[in-house]
């Protein structure tokens, strides 16, 4: 039995849809927006890769969107794009489960609700903001709008949220609890996160102007937001152009062994935030020339979902796009992929070293 990827839907600073992601890979750049924030020390401006969810109106009635915030809209748009890519939008599959991974959750709604209560008292608290501030709000709205009654799960495991979600999705399919799983990750930019980024990385994020921990990272550590969803099913043979999920691993690389696949190129989730960014060379083969695409979608906990989408596109096209020319993380001892390359085999692995020495590894393969 194979766990096959039938459709992919992506939303981020690069645009909406896999075609927008492909264009970003081809040009090797995504333009960040400058966001203005008011602080106790005066106004500041920081770069951020923000998502535009205007196109969700093509899939969801405007009346239904009135009480739905940006975080949920990103999840909805990614879900509909994945179903459309899988040619299931007009004939929704039966027995489908939904899993949403998120590292930050509905952070904006949470802080907005808290601020209104703190500044103006309990009566000023918005019931809509409160209901949309819970972590399962995105998954709930996807189910409601799709009228899906199957199992529904929200997972928050910070930067390991996506591999955790995939392990659950695969288990559901193997147990035949469902025939399809709509699984993906979504995270949103908020002003508190932007201020945190500013405090650690300075006004520009430049390693030459930032102080403290920022001195060890490059300018690419730009906050991002977006969603990336996959439509998974089980098949006897892997017939999808996107390939199948061969393996998912989750663990601690200090306490246990990381079983890296042979003859596989690697896509690394190094984003400039994680302390694990300097540890990749210890785990990868010496002759490895990995790719890093985080400058294209930004730094966010569910970034591994975007790496998976890029790996699936590489399997479909038969070529791996080069890493962006600049704004890349400092990876001691690892020369990065700098030109178009044919994958050595029929598999590509996505590796993320996260907080607390955690690691997530997802390997895709195509027959």
Radius of gyration over alpha carbons? 20 Å
Going across the biggest sheet, name each strand in turn: 2-1-9-7-5-6
Biggest sheet: strands, sense, closure?
6 strands, mixed
CATH topology type: Peroxisomal Thiolase, Chain A, domain 1
Low-pLDDT stretches: 204-219
Tell me the number of structural domains: 1
In CATH, the architecture is 3-Layer(aba) Sandwich
Strand-residue fraction? 15-25%
Intertermini distance: 13 Å
Protein structure class = alpha/beta
Comma- or semicolon-separated keywords:
single chain, 367 residues, alpha/beta, Peroxisomal Thiolase, Chain A, domain 1, 6-stranded mixed β-sheet, 5-stranded mixed β-sheet
Your description of this structure?
The chain is an alpha/beta fold and 367 residues long. The protein has one domain (2-365): 3-Layer(aba) Sandwich (Peroxisomal Thiolase, Chain A, domain 1). The chain has 11 helices and 14 strands. It has helices at 18-27, 62-65, 70-85, 107-120, 127-131, 137-146, 161-174, 191-201, 280-283, 294-297, 303-317, and strands at residues 2-12, 15-16, 33-39, 42-49, 96-101, 152-155, 180-187, 223-224, 226-235, 244-252, 266-268, 291-292, 347-353, 358-365. Strands 2-1-9-7-5-6 form a 6-stranded mixed beta sheet, with helices on both faces. A 5-stranded mixed beta sheet has the order 10-14-13-11-12, with helices on one face. The longest helix is centred in the first third of the chain and has 16 residues, at 70-85. It is globular. It starts with a strand and ends with a strand. Mean pLDDT is 87; it is low at 204-219.
């Amino acid at each position: 039995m194979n766990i096959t990827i039938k459709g992919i839907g992506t939303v981020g600073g690069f645009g909406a849809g896999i075609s927008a992601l492909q264009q970003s890979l081809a040009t090797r750049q995504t333009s960040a927006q400058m966001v203005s924030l008011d602080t106790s020390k005066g106004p500041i401006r920081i770069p951020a890769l923000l998502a535009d969810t205007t196109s969700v109106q093509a899939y969801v009635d405007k009346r239904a969107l009135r009480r739905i915030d940006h975080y949920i809209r990103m999840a909805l748009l990614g879900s509909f794009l994945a179903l459309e890519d899988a040619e299931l939008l007009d004939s929704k599959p039966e027995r489908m489960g939904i899993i949403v991974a998120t590292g930050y959750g509905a952070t904006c709604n949470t802080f907005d609700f808290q601020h209104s209560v703190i500044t103006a008292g309990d009566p000023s608290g918005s019931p809509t903001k409160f209901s949309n501030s819970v972590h399962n709000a995105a998954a709930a709205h996807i189910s409601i709008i799709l009228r899906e009654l199957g199992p529904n799960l929200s997972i928050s495991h910070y930067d390991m949220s996506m591999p955790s979600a995939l392990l659950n999705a695969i288990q559901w399919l193997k147990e035949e609890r469902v025939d399809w799983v709509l699984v993906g990750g979504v995270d949103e930019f908020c002003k508190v996160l932007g201020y945190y980024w500013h405090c650690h990385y300075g006004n520009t994020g430049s390693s030459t102007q930032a102080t403290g921990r920022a001195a060890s990272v490059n300018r690419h550590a730009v906050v991002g937001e977006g969603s990336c969803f996959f439509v998974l099913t089980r098949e006897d043979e892997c017939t999808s152009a996107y390939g199948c999920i061969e393996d998912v691993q989750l663990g601690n690389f200090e306490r246990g062994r990381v079983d890296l696949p042979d003859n596989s190129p690697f896509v690394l989730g190094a984003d400039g935030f994680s302390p694990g960014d300097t540890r990749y060379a210890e785990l990868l083969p010496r002759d490895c020339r990995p790719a890093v695409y985080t400058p294209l979608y930004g730094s966010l906990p569910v970034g591994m979902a975007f790496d998976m989408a890029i790996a699936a596109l590489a399997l479909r096209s038969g070529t791996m796009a080069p890493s962006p020319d600049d704004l890349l993380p400092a990876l001691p001892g690892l020369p990065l992929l700098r030109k178009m390359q044919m994958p050595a085999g029929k598999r590509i692995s996505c590796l993320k070293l996260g907080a607390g020495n955690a690691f997530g590894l997802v390997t895709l393969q195509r027959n």
